[in-house]
Structure to design on (589 residues):
């Protein structure tokens, strides 16, 4: 297992390097002069030259890349143009908010999805089962941002039960969590239903029934446990989805996360802030993928680490 | 059971009521988008402040938006925009991704290592990040949106084409063609490509759903189609401020969007079930 962890960590290095290189190159792919674009159209030539110098754009590309990597090792990705502070330090609190929201949505989607999926899978021809399939389809088809708006209309404006936006309380977390989790909930419920329905006919389930085990124990102890591996896979994937989906959800609910941070940065052409946010997003993906791979290896004894 | 295995993919598709419903929705959507200039009763950009935020009425079947524009007309013209963007994006993704995947799968070796290595890295990230990066670099607007959403789907298309090519590349007819002195390019185009098209078409249909959603999402965020051009995501964004007094302006474009995405999803599922019943049985 230790060797597997080390190998998996080593595998991350080239991928992280590709990510860093792409983030670096972003500034150079922009058509025109990024310094000119970031400044007011009325900026003087000296101001543009000063910004080019500040961004290292007046250096040869190789040198810029080396400087970029050097700064990154020291934990810096340049200065945000809007705030004048370190772009990475600026993005960090937003990142924490996004992780909080993404984690809440995965827990919600996982628990609700597995619960509904088991109920449907235990009786594949019941109305409940049809309902799950319909909900799963709606879950993957409804635009996240629009679902968020509907929830705001119903629960915040009409019923006045929950806040329409902001962060800082558990109430504020409820609607964004449901919004962000709905897509994964649909997928998880569908996979769980399929897995449970399939093993309900397996010999060991029939044996358990023949021995007089209660239906509940048959479903939860025998069927669900054996249907769980693909469910774990999908649930782990949904964390990645939640990080990406956070962009729209955070805007709808004014949630101060990284998704909103990056949208604001793109609209303001604050390129260092865009680079820092993309970098944080990408690295968190790599870490989540790594953790999920390890969890998966632990959960499935059939995977060998050799 | 024996009858089932004899059924052609078309028979299976026609028996799948959900898939048919999906195809009907797509058909209606495409027809409305194409016929928008003739069907729209009003100019989609014509403001009429006297009709601001009016609910649906006989003259304006779906009501009016925050500038008094006719929502039904904007919806029709918006369908055109979103159809153009999504078809353009998926076509772009296929045009770039399929040749890459085909070459990687066919030639193998270092070329495969390079292409599949890059694709694997890109697939580790959610597409919206790639799309955001493209938007950050190139800016906003319809053509840039096609590029951003197209880039989003390139890795999936390349991965699928590579996998399918690997399945086909060692078939006897390919070996035979090579033994007869067929050139690589000809073998790829004449013998391999036609045999890997099925999964690509299925994936393309499902990607259209993602493309419609992503286009609307980016436009909603202000990073896609810019006002006053009618686009469903942008329509929702501009009416959000009035959600309390005129929820219809937010709800109606959302319903349209959901129906179309649902249509593509159901049709894509149906296509994959009828073309490859064994793989789809579990879903």
């Amino acid at each position: 297992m230790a060797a597997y962890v080390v190998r998996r960590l080593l595998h991350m290095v080239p991928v992280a390097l590709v990510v860093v290189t792409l983030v670096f190159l972003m500034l150079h792919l922009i058509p025109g002069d990024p310094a000119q674009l970031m400044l007011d159209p009325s900026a003087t030539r000296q101001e543009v030259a000063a910004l080019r110098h500040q961004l290292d754009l007046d250096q040869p590309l190789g040198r810029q890349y080396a400087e970029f990597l050097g700064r990154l090792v020291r934990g810096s990705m340049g200065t945000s143009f809007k705030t004048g502070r370190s772009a990475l330090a600026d993005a960090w609190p937003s990142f924490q908010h996004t992780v909080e929201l993404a984690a809440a949505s995965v827990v919600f989607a996982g628990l609700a999805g597995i619960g509904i999926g088991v109920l449907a899978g235990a009786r594949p021809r019941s109305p409940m089962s049809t309902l799950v399939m319909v909900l799963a389809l709606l879950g993957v088809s409804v635009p996240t941002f629009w679902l968020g708006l509907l929830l705001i209309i119903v629960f915040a404006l009409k019923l006045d039960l929950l806040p329409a936006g902001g962060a800082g309380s558990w109430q504020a977390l409820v609607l964004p969590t449901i919004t962000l989790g709905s897509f994964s909930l649909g997928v998880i419920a569908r996979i769980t239903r399929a897995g449970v329905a399939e093993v309900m006919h397996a010999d060991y389930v029939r044996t358990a029934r023949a021995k007089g085990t209660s239906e509940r124990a048959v479903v939860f102890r025998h069927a669900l446990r054996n249907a769980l591996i693909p469910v774990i896979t999908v649930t782990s994937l949904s964390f990645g989805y939640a990080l990406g989906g956070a962009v729209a959800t955070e805007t709808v609910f004014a949630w101060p996360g990284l998704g909103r941070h990056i949208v604001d940065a793109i609209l303001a052409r604050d390129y260092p802030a865009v680079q820092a946010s993309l970098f944080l997003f990408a690295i968190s993906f790599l870490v989540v993928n790594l953790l999920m791979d390890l969890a998966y290896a632990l959960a499935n004894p059939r995977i060998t680490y050799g | 059971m024996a009858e089932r295995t004899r059924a052609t993919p078309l028979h299976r598709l026609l028996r799948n009521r959900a898939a048919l419903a999906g195809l009907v929705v797509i058909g209606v959507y495409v027809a409305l988008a194409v016929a928008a200039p003739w069907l729209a009763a009003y100019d989609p950009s014509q403001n009429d402040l006297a009709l601001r935020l009016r609910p649906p009425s006989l003259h304006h079947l779906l009501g009016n938006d925050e500038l008094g524009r006719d929502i039904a007309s904007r919806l029709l013209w918006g369908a055109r925009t979103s159809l153009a963007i999504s078809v353009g994006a998926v076509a772009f993704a296929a045009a770039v991704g399929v040749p890459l995947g085909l070459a990687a799968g066919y030639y193998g070796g270092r070329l495969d290592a390079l292409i599949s290595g890059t694709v694997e890295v890109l697939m580790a990230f959610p597409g919206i990040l790639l799309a955001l990066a493209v938007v950050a670099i190139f800016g906003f607007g319809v053509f840039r949106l096609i590029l951003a959403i197209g880039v989003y789907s390139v890795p999936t298309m390349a991965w699928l084409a590579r996998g399918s090519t690997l399945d086909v590349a060692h078939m006897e007819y390919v070996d035979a063609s090579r033994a007869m002195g067929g050139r690589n390019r000809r073998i790829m185009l004449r013998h391999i490509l036609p045999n890997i098209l099925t999964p690509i078409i299925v994936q393309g249909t499902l990607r259209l759903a993602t493309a419609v959603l992503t286009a609307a999402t980016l436009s909603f965020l202000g990073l896609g189609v810019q006002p006053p051009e009618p686009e469903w995501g942008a329509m929702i964004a501009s009416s959000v401020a009035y959600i309390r007094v005129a929820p219809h302006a937010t709800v109606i474009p959302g319903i349209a969007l959901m129906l179309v995405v649902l249509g593509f999803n159901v049709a894509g599922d149906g296509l994959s079930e009828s073309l490859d019943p064994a793989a789809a049985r579990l879903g």
Notes: The radius of gyration of chain B is 22 Å.
